[in-house]
Amino acid sequence: MNKMLLSIAVALIFLPSACASPARQPGTSAPVQQSGPDTITYPSEHGPIQVPAHPKRVVALSFAGNLMALGINLVGVDTWSKMNPRFEKTLSSVQEVSDESLEKIAALEPDLIIGMSTIKNADKLNLIAPTVTYTYGSVDYLTQQLEIGKLVNKEKEAQAWIDDFKKRAQQAGKDIKAKIGENATVSVFESSDKQIYVFGDNWGRGTEILYREMKLSMPDKVKETALKPGYYALSLEVLPAFAGDYVIFSKNKDADNAFQQTELYKGIPAVKNNRVFEVNAKEFYFNDPLTLDYQLDFFIKSFLGR
């Protein structure tokens, strides 16, 4: 699996518990039940699972930013979260782990493990601590935060952030449209190895904000190719057809970005008009609250100059 596919795996939702209770359907929501003074029953996709009411030592095989935004103490995180420059200070003393480092995770003595449904060794991890996993795209990016809030018994805090974020993002969208025009289009590109990608509206990189909350338009070619799968691989030759009036370039500095020196790239109207806004890809991958707030601030500054 190449770096792009690994980074694209930054996402969402639940894993089988030891309980044989009926599973709930993905995309639906169910209330959390108090099981006792120290535990709650969380309604995962595959059935109820007992988790700590107030988890104190959490291993996040993904969703580190979602948990950090809720003030949850992390003792282990995935590689992609660990390499995020914006998380570096907070995670400096947190161990880097993977779904295969079982002994290392066990030594951390977690009381809860969270990951994606694609993780390996879920059954073994569940023997170390209650393990809840999430399937990407099962719910939208804000509902994902609400679900994680429920899991760690901080649903009210999660909902409060969601309400405030939507209000700020939607107002910024109105302000941006007033400046660039109702019909102006925006593309989100990313470089990885020797490949260029364009994104739809649900794959991080600020796409959820631009297209879902701000209601900005994407070029027709992006809509045709990237909207449903989430992303689409491009060759340099067709790049101009996918470029909007404005371009967000999520740039991997260690990737091959030589295409930016070509006449074809320089001839794209957004490039010629200084309407390409570059950002460090490693800071822009995710769609957790910490990253979303950063992305929103970046868009306000880039489009509105404030």
Automatic annotation (TrEMBL):
Alphabetical list of Pfam families matching this protein: Peripla_BP_2 (PF01497)
Compartmental location: Cell envelope
Supply the name of the protein. Iron(3+)-hydroxamate-binding protein FhuD
Chief location of this protein?
other
Q: Which UniProt keywords apply?
A: Signal, Transport
Family per similarity comment: Belongs to the bacterial solute-binding protein 8 family.
Domain called Fe/B12 periplasmic-binding: residue spans: 57-306
The answer to keyword Signal applying to this record is: yes
- Keyword check for Zinc, yes or no: no
Task: Give the residue range of the signal peptide.
Answer: 1-20
**Highest lineage ranks of the organism?**
Bacteria, Bacillati, Bacillota, Bacilli, Bacillales
Q: Which InterPro entries match?
A: ABC_transptr_periplasmic_BD, Bact_iron-sidero_bind
